[in-house]
Design goal:
The chain is an alpha+beta fold and 142 residues long. It contains 4 helices and 7 strands, in the order ααββββαββαβ. It has a single domain, classed as Electron Transport, Fmn-binding Protein, Chain A (Pnp Oxidase, Chain A), CATH 2.30.110.
């Protein structure tokens, strides 16, 4: 068979595939690209008195979404109180919203991503946990 005979069929298949991809999917992945390989980011919140709080945290990106974890921290209290949130990796700053993850399957995925990204340091830190951390899903553009 000749390639020329298959080109119209191939073009039609590519068009059909393109229509299945959500319009914002590529943009959402682009938002997280600077954070996916970065080891430590800064998360910016505001304390109750309005003072800016910058905290260095670990981050993972799972299925095109950023996740962070914490235990009983001031910045978590700020988020629960409704503080604005920005994250920074190098020169890249992104305004985000945050929601606590309750779904055990998602929490397990995020935990595995932390193990894969941070290796021995993750295992060492996990050994000293007093309680399970709060996992936060970060939503870009919130």
């Amino acid at each position: 068979m000749h390639l020329e005979l298959h080109l119209p069929r191939l073009a039609g298949a590519l068009l059909a595939l393109a229509l299945l991809i959500p319009a914002g999917a590529a943009a959402a992945d682009d938002d997280w690209a600077p954070f996916a390989e970065t080891k430590t980011i800064e998360i910016h919140t505001q304390d109750e008195d309005g003072e800016a709080r910058k905290t260095k945290v670990w981050i993972v990106v799972v299925d095109g979404t950023g996740y962070v974890r914490t235990n009983d921290s001031r910045w978590l209290a700020n988020i629960r109180r409704g503080s604005t949130i920005e994250i920074r990796a190098g020169e890249t700053t992104l305004a985000v919203g945050a929601s606590e993850v309750e779904d055990e399957a998602v929490r397990d995925q995020v935990e595995e991503a932390f193990k894969a990204k941070y290796g021995a340091m993750q295992k060492f830190m996990s050994f000293f946990r007093i309680s399970e951390p709060t996992v936060l899903r970060l939503d870009a553009g919130s």
